[in-house]
Specification:
By secondary structure, the chain is an all-alpha fold. Helix content is about 80%, strand content about 0%.
Amino acid sequence: MILTLVLMLLAGLALLLAGGEAMVRGAVALGRWLDLSPLVVGIIIIGFATSLPEMVVSIQAVLQGVPTIATGNILGSNIANILLVLGLTALVKPMHHQSRALGKDAAPLLLASIAFLALGLLFGIITPLAGVLLFGALLLMMGFEFRRAQRETRLAREIAEELEEEMNIHPLLQKPPVAMLAVAVGLGLLVWGGNLFVNGASGIAEYFGVSHGLIGLTLVALGTSAPELASSLIAARHGHSDVAYGNVVGSNLFNLLGVGGAAALAGGLAAPQQMLLVDGGVMLIATVAMIAVFAHRNGLTRPLAAIFAGGYIAYIAVRSSMG
């Protein structure tokens, strides 16, 4: 029984990653065929499409009647991204001071974190209307980022270079029908994988007699954060560990506004008070700590990175004992 559930979970994660990859590559190829600028494609891909697995899992959780998995996934992924991903990345190679740590990047993340928790604490549920507001805020931010990149030549060049590194379009995908097929197949794999992943996670929770929320905070959150961890560690190994900061800020923002908004639109997002106070509190503290560390001239040193990673292990241990 448990082996079947674990295999279901792993198969779902593999399908989610494969589906996301196919859909993103097909979308990039279509964007180029439509003669969209690298900046437009880069903003969409970097800010939206790469987090499709998290969005699909959370929507599936709401539709299958286990919305606390979605809420746990959002909070748990954000905590894992800051403490685990940044911590392990900086252990490989320390990360420098980030000039935008107190401004254009971090301030929106802090505001989004507070808004998400406030909505849940005030109403006990993040309603579809609140979901519209969250998702609308994400679209506004993406629009602002696009206009900012247009004004800042260096930023536009960085986005174009990141897109070029991430996406080498296969010759077959340069044919529009093949690119459209890749998008369609990717979407199908995402839906199938999301269904398997949520069923596996839900079954594991029931097998061990723990809450769906706890599984969302731990197992599901770690699974959906795996791509960010892998890409950050690879970047650090090649001497580019600082890119992890931008990836984590972008991913966490998208989790709160995009994933949270879409899941709420799918039928309302459960917001248990204990989860918001305990796990939401940890997320908020971790966010403030990240901003403070990267605002300091020393950045994320190895000793601080060890505290981040150790803090995540301690959080998981304490949270698991709470049930």
